[in-house]
Fold this protein.
Amino acid sequence: MSRAHTSGQKVAFLGATRGMGRALARQMAERGDALFLLGRDDEELARSASDLEARGAESVEHAHCDLEDPTSFGPALDAATEALGGLDTVVVTAGIFATQQALEEDSELLARLLRVDFTHSVLFCEQARRRLLAQGGGNLCVFSSVAGDRGRKPIVLYGASKAGLSRYLEGLDHRYRAEGLRVLTVKPGFVRTGMTAGLPEPPFAGDPEDVARSVLKAMDRGDAVVYAPAPWRAVMAVIRHLPRAVMRRVEF
Amino acid sequence: MTKRSKRGANGSRLSGWGRHSAPGSELKTENLERGSMDVPLSRGLGRSYGDSSLPPADKPVALNTTLADRILSFDTESGLLRAEAGLALAELNRLFLPRGWFTPVSPGTQYVTLGGMVAADVHGKNQHVDGDFGDHVTRLKMRVADGRVLWCGPEEHADLFFGSIGGMGLLGHILEVEFTMRRVPSQWIWQETERVPNIDAFEQALSAAAKDWPMTVGWIDCVAGGTSLGRGILMKGRWATASEAPKHAPRPKPRPRLPFDLPEWALGRLSVRAFNELYYRKHFRKETRGLVDPQSFFYPLDILRDWNRMYGRRGFTQWQGLLPRSAKSGAARRMLEILSARGGASFLAVIKDCDKAGVGTLSFPAPGITLALDIPMRDDTQALIDALNQQLLVEGGRIYLAKDSLTREEDFRAMEPRLEEFGRLREAWDPEHKLKSAQSIRLLGDSA
Ligand SMILES: Cc1cc2nc3c(=O)[nH]c(=O)nc-3n(C[C@H](O)[C@H](O)[C@H](O)COP(=O)(O)OP(=O)(O)OC[C@H]3O[C@@H](n4cnc5c(N)ncnc54)[C@H](O)[C@@H]3O)c2cc1C
Ligand SMILES: NC(=O)c1ccc[n+]([C@@H]2O[C@H](COP(=O)([O-])OP(=O)(O)OC[C@H]3O[C@@H](n4cnc5c(N)ncnc54)[C@H](OP(=O)(O)O)[C@@H]3O)[C@@H](O)[C@H]2O)c1
């Protein structure tokens, strides 16, 4: 694979304010990438921009972009392209989570989660894809989840949204790689972030910094899929092959 | 997002570095302003030894600040830095040492948060020159008990500001910290060490070294007795000049984990004796001098992650007392005599002279000598701590709250005439004592 863009990339980043996005954006800033932040809360964006600048990024600008509002997507990506003077990479770590129980009890929450994590994520990626292709290609790095790999009791609904997202990203890779679009689907296992705070911790739980390191490596290599932390690749290989009769019985 | 740990609801426990635990769970969020609305206590990396960072029994939840770790501004001229309270010193060091900046004051571990450094008003090897961390803090953003979020500093809400420095989280939640970083000439330390034959010589050696060295500390072999009581190694250091230092940065060291709890006998008297003897002997030359990595100079214990597991399941405590200048000479010797008379095996003992009184209402340091003794939890540990405290009272000293788990309320009150003033601050800022900790219940008489 080509290692054309190992650093100094122009990156539009949706979700850098917290969690794995914060960790990944920091590592990008430290290696010299130019960042433009997209997100829903201007104050949070400004604070994260300051943090990235203190860590070595050149002046980091930001624009409003809310996954609940698709009309914000185009203008935000345009603002990023203009400020950066082009666009090499779009990263999406933004997303929401809710427990199976909460989603079963609250259909409004469910509708919102499906919108944010699937429909609107796809709409955002479509806008990003078009802009990247128009410039001859680039990286589209999107955080899906191991939850989308198999229908599992504790994450039926969230998992379904991530399954849809993963499948979409896989298709994009097949369809556009030849034109220079490098799509990276990130499948985190359990990672200690605000999203999972309070959930019981399974084996192989990881930290955002380690995930960020794996993602950067995978992106530079041009991989299509990365599991992080690494053991989750093997864990999911097993879970994907368990017979239905077993999946009906187990609680994971 | 703001979520409460489930484990708390069904019998989970939290513990400090000494592994002594209390029922409780953590609320963990990037957004301290939101997270601090309805919790009795904030905690950082839990490196205080005892129960300072453990929530009260009647409302057993603490705000864990470690996700709030953004640097909000840094002035490359003045070194003024503002950051969220959960930023770890380790991260600050990683980012700023290569650029020629260092924290003005560092404790003996870098796995502490800015909030914890303010709340305990931590001191380091440069106490005799630069005072404590609080001396370098210019402003704090706080959530106070009545729900307001406000900035305080020496000129705005000064009582809240000085009360919060060393106030162990009891006057408000620290959301942001602004302080002045220190420029350093290189990424290396010039260190000289010497063997010191006994405790009396130690006191003299420390005060002699204080004149020429910006950083000093002593490690004491607590096992040696008789005329060797309190023998040890004195370490003196300063930042190496740009011309002395190698051009390359120190190489980061791997940090192996201690993967399991050691059985209790492992740190019994014999092994502690052997360790201390070895350490003293290993230092076989009377003196050493040379360039060292700041990591091993400031944070020798950080090399082994989770080293507190060494003490087994029951854990350990640290007794750290300040022996003020007003104490009669030989005070440090008298403390060590109590330790050895009671057979208290201390794996690690540290001695340091202080020359500055902290700015905080309850800051621990003041001119004098501080002694810190790691003590495994055994059935007789309470009695040992009581005996040390009785002697400390005679010497007119006080204990360091960030290390304490066993001091009795009546002893603490007798040591701390400043409690009256601190009580007035709490009346002013938190009359209902919404903010409290397991420690404030134990030592300040807060209701449980
Ligand atoms: C190996 C080792 C060496 C050490 N060496 C030294 C030393 O040389 N000098 C020294 O002074 N100390 C030393 N310490 C003690 C340590 O520096 C202090 O206990 C420090 O407070 C720990 O920081 P933390 O972030 O872990 O805080 P925690 O232990 O989590 O909390 C400590 C206290 O600070 C309060 N607090 C924390 N964050 C906030 C906040 N945001 N707002 C309000 N209150 C808050 C807590 O309520 C608690 O009372 C050492 C500890 C260890 C384990
Ligand atoms: N943590 C895990 O264990 C885990 C496991 C598998 C997959 N994942 C996936 O990995 C991704 C990152 O997870 P994380 O744990 O890092 O999450 P996180 O800490 O909760 O961070 C989520 C990020 O998404 C942003 N966001 C949420 N809703 C948004 C909206 N409507 N518009 C714009 N931005 C929005 C947040 O911005 P604000 O600051 O504005 O809130 C925040 O930056 C998610 O897609 C998640 O589903 C996580």
About this structure: The longest strand of chain A covers residues 181-188.
